[in-house]
Amino acid sequence: MRIDVVSIFPEYLAPLRLSLLGRAQEDGLLSLAVHDLRDFTFDRHRTVDDTPYGGGAGMVMKPEPWALALERVLEEQLAHDGAGLGPAPRRPVLVVPSPAGEVFTQAMAYELAEQPTLAFACGRYEGIDERVLEWAGEHFDVRPVSLGDYVLNGGEVAVMAMVEAVGRLLPGVVGNPESLVEESHADGLLEYPVYTKPASWRGHDVPDVLLSGNHGKIASWRLEQQLRRTAARRPELLDGADASSYGKSERAV
Ligand code: SAM
């Protein structure tokens, strides 16, 4: 997969070069390009913002640097796809982080992980001039996405979270694919509690069933724990969920 991120703080994205995603890039499983929006300005101050029409607090990101930056991303992504070869070019996905977007979920992470390329546009200030999204819709499949119901200073932290959630689903990125199947949200429930050695620690013991060696009993206990934990912490996840999928992920990894 190729991922392009446009930001006025490209260095913010540096942690995406570390750990599992860093190794994925070294191994050629993922290619990450970070573009500085200010490289697409032409004035001495490299201006990317201006006052809002209609008045109000804060500044709004100007449209033209975004159009130029996204045109560059489009060109590079089409080249990556091998433009001109094979079927008609698809419209690449452009994720625009926004507290006013659709909330990011594990299901969306799986959906985005199917894409050959992804682009992310990190807003700052009061956000990006709305016409950029209208214009971008002519070239991209534009997806405004929220990390959750709170407001961050910029899109970079949201992009880091989304790229990490998507990147770890790419084949070969996580060493043991089984660990993706047994995680929270894989089957609509939160994960069961996990323990390691020693069996007794500061007066707290590992549940006996986990020491029993009985795999059937362990699986039943884990499912029961998943249901209890989900009911206690995130009861809304149980509403309308397909109970037949509990305890097993539908996704073959
Ligand atoms: N005025 C905007 C509003 O109320 O919707 C908030 C702007 S926020 C200060 C600046 C940028 O941070 C946004 O353009 C977006 O890129 C990012 N951002 C803030 N909160 C976010 C969230 N919950 N999810 C994703 N991105 C977020």
TrEMBL record:
Binding residues for S-adenosyl-L-methionine: 123, 147-152
Domain of life: Bacteria
EC id: 2.1.1.228
Chief location bin: cytoplasm
Reactions catalysed: guanosine(37) in tRNA + S-adenosyl-L-methionine = N(1)-methylguanosine(37) in tRNA + S-adenosyl-L-homocysteine + H(+)
Enzyme class: transferase
Classification via InterPro entries: Alpha/beta_knot_MTases (IPR029028), tRNA_m1G_MeTrfase_C_sf (IPR023148), tRNA_m1G_MeTrfase_TrmD (IPR002649), tRNA_m1G_MTases_N (IPR029026), tRNA_MeTrfase_TRMD/TRM10 (IPR016009)
Keywords: Cytoplasm, Methyltransferase, S-adenosyl-L-methionine, Transferase, tRNA processing
Every tRNA methyltransferase TRMD/TRM10-type domain range: 1-238
Entry-linked Gene3D superfamilies: 3.40.1280.10, tRNA(m1g37)methyltransferase, domain 2
UniProt keyword Cytoplasm, yes or no: yes
A Pfam entry, by short name: tRNA_m1G_MT
Cellular localisation: Cytoplasm
Cited function: Specifically methylates guanosine-37 in various tRNAs.
Family to which the UniProt record says this protein belongs: Belongs to the RNA methyltransferase TrmD family.
PANTHER family linked to this entry: TRNA (GUANINE-N(1)-)-METHYLTRANSFERASE
Subunit structure: Homodimer.
The name this protein goes by in its record: tRNA (guanine-N(1)-)-methyltransferase
UniProt source species: Sinomonas flava
Taxonomic lineage: Bacteria, Bacillati, Actinomycetota, Actinomycetes, Micrococcales
